[in-house]
Amino acid sequence: EEMLSRKNKGIKQESPRLFFIQLGPQAKQQSFLLLEQFRKARLSVASSLSKDSIKNQLKHAAQLGVSHSIILGQKEAIDNTVIVRDMDTGMQEIVPQEKLLDYLKKKKKNK
After folding, report:
1. What is the pLDDT of residues 39-87, one digit of tens each?
2. Up-side HSE of residue 3: CA atoms within 13 Å toward CB?
3. What SUPFAM superfamilies does the entry give (predicted)?
């Protein structure tokens, strides 16, 4: 609804570059903190706070055409890490949460 009103007002809606996937209650809670960091860093991130499976969330990310998905599951929430998945190659890297913004900024420069 908000996107429609923005289109009608001529406000350009930037397509997200990243898709944030969270799995499980602890991961969901941590995801809010990370999403706030992305917002402050002006990174365009889409997310689904539903209880969809990882498969469905990755499918949604592919439909949006994002370059990377950030996956935060229960294990990652405990370890304070995330999995960054390149949506073109399927390659995945484990990144500490405190280094995620720097990691993503480097990825953006390399593209």
Report:
1. 898 888 888 777 778 888 999 999 999 999 999 999 999 999 999 999 9
2. 5
3. Class II aaRS ABD-related
pLDDT of res. 83: 96
- Number of domains the chain is built from: 1
Say if CB 86 and CB 60 are below 8 A apart.
no
Residue 88 belongs to what domain range? Answer: 15-110
Is residue 45 within 8 Å of residue 108, measured between CB atoms? no
Residue 4 covered by a domain: no
What is the C-alpha separation between 17 and 45, in angstroms, rounded?
A: 6
**How confident is residue 94, by pLDDT bands cut at 50, 70 and 90?**
very high
- Longest pairwise C-alpha distance within the chain: 44
Instruction: Tell me the CATH number at 31.
Output: 3.40.50.800
**Where do the DSSP E strands lie in 9-96?**
18-22, 45-48, 68-72, 81-86, 92-96
Whether 97 is in a domain gets the answer: yes
